[in-house]
Amino acid sequence: MTDDEEEQRPRRQIRREEQRDLGERSSKMAADFMKMSDAVLSKLDLDEDTRDAIVQARKVKHHTARRRAERQLAGDLRRLDIDVVEKKLAELYGSEDANAKRFHEAERWRARFVAEGTSAIAAFPGGGDDKLRDLIDAAQRSKPGSSKALFRYVVERLKAAGG
Length: 163
Prior knowledge:
There is one protein chain. By secondary structure, this protein is mostly helical. The chain folds into 2 domains: 3-80, no CATH class; 94-161, no CATH class. It has helices at residues 3-8, 11-35, 38-43, 48-59, 63-78, 82-116, 130-140, 146-161. Helix 2 crosses helix 5 (63-78) and helix 6 crosses helix 7.
C-alpha cells in the first residue's frame, strides 16, 4: 500500500487494523507462555502480576477451560508493552541458540581430538595446555568418563575464548 492510499484510509480502519495486529501478537505470545517451561519462564524478567496470570492460566487442565484461560492471558498481555516482551523473548531464544551452537562446536572438537589426537590442538581456538593433552590421551584410550570430561573442558574453553 502506498502512502497516498494510507492517507485515504479512515483513521478508524487504521486503528482497527492496529488493534487486530496487537491482538494476534498477544494471542501468539499467550500460547507461547502456556507451552513454555518453568525454567525458561523464570529467565524472563516479567512483573509479578503477569507472572501470576501466566501461572494461573497454566494450572487449568481441561481443554475448553484452558483455551478460555489462554484468551484471558492474551487480554492481560495486551496491557503490557508487547514490543518489550517480544524483545526479551528474542534475546532469550538467541542466547539459547548461541549455547546450542557452542555445544555443537564443542562436540565437533571433541570428536576431532579423539580421532586426530594432540595434533589437532594447534587449530583449537582456545589453545592447548597440559590438561587438554591429558584429557585427549585419556579419551583416546577410552577411559570411562574421559570423553565426557574432554567435552566439558572444550565447552569451558570455547566459552572463555568467546566461541
